Amino acid sequence: MKRVIIIGAGPAGLFAAYKLADKCDVTIIDKGLSVEKRSCPSPDSCIRVCELCAKLYGEGGAGLMSDGKIIFSTEIGSFLNHVDGVGEKKNAVLVAEVQNIFEQYGVHAITDTDKVLKKQVEEEAVRAGIRYVHTTLAHVGTDKLKSLIQKFRDDLIQRGVKFVEKQDALDIEKNGDKITVSTKDTSYECDNLLIAPGRVGAKWLEAVVKKLGIEYQYNPMDLGVRVEVKRQITDRVTSVSRDMKFQILTDTYQDMVRTFCTCPGGKVARETHSEGYNLVNGHSEAGDPHENTNFAFLVTIPFTEPMANGNEYARRIAETVRELGGDKPIVQRLGDLRAGHRSKSKHVLNYVVKPSLEGATFGDIGLALPHRILIGLLEGLKKLDKIMPGVNNDETLLYAPEAKFHALRIKNADPFLQTSVKGIYVAGDGAGLSRGIVGAAACGVLAAEGMLQN
Question: Which fold has domain 3-110+136-217+409-453?
C-alpha cells in the first residue's frame, strides 16, 4: 500500500485524506492541536501571545475558528481555473465533489435567495461600475464548526487515517523515490508527500521549496482593513448573498478592491501571529446574534521587481501597525480618518457603531497603511456606498491590518498539483492555489487523485 504523508490538517489535508483513505496508508502531521484541545484563552481581546495560536494552528486549520462560510464556487476562493492542466471545467467537478462531501455532514447550501432583489443588486452594481459575483454558499457558524470537523476527523480515523499533533515538520528530504519528513521526535518515510500548511505556513513553505529546488512564483498581494457597520446597512445585500462579493476598480491607481469574508451579525476578531504581528478577521455565530456586520476590504496589488514577494511586504506593514497599536490592531472611525486625526477611546460612547473587538487600539490608520492602500480603500468605499448607502458614513469603523498571505504560488508540474520534485504535491492557501475552505479542499481532492493515478 502506498504511504502518504500530509503536512497540515486544514481543509486541503483533510479532504485529501478523505479521498485517499482505504486506498493508501495516510498520516497527517500538524503543528497544532487536535480539535478538542484547540481553545483560545482570550478570544475577545487576545491579550497575550501563546506558544502557538490555537486560532491559527491545529486540526481544521485556521478555518476552524472562523464562521464557516462554505462558498461553492470555482471563481471565488480558488485559483484552480488558472492552473495548467486544470481549468474551470475540472475545477467545477472538484467543487461539486467537495459540496457532496459537505452535504454528507449536514452542510447544505442556502437556496432561498430573493431573485427580484438579487436582480436589483446586480443592476445597481453595474450602474456603479462594480463587478458583483453571486455565489452559492452555506453558513455553519463559529459555534458549530468544531463538532463538524471533529466528526469529519473521527470518520477518517475509523477509515485508517493517522493523525499526529504538535509536530512541526522541521526538514523534508528526497532520496531516490523516497521522501522523508523529520519532526523533533521522529521521521516519516513516504512515497508521496502533500504539503498543505495553510496561509500561516506560507513563509515556512517558501523556505521549503527553496531548499528542495521546487519552482514557484508570486501571486498579487491583498492588504487592507476590516470594515464594521450597523447591520441594517448591509442586511439588504447580505440577504441576497450572505458573503457579498464586490470587485471595484479604483480611479487613481486602477487597483482592484474587493469585499471578502462578510460576517452579518458577527464580531471582529484578532489573530496573533508568532512571527511578530497581529491581523484582524471576522466571525459570526449561527443565528447572527450581534448588532454589527463586518467584512474584509482588501486592495490587490501585483508585485514584480525588484521586490516580487508581496507576502513579505504585507508582513512588514503588519509589523508597523503592531508597533503603532501597542501590540494591538488599530481601529478608527472613517470620519476621523478623512479629517486627518486619530480616533480616541474617550469618544466611544458617542459612536453610532460600537466596536465589537475589545482588544484594539483607537488610533490613526493613516499612519499605518501606505498612501496607495488608503486611497484605494477610500475610493472603494465611496463606490460601494452606491449599492449599500451608509457604508461610507463617518461612523463606519475600520480595523487594521487585514491581510491574506497567499502571495507565494507553487508551480505545478502536472494537472494534479505535483511540484517539479516528483512525489511532492502542494495544496491550499499557503501554496497560493486557494483562498478559502472549498478552494483548499478542492486542491486536496485534486492532489489525492494524482497520487492515486501516478
Answer: FAD/NAD(P)-binding domain (3.50.50)
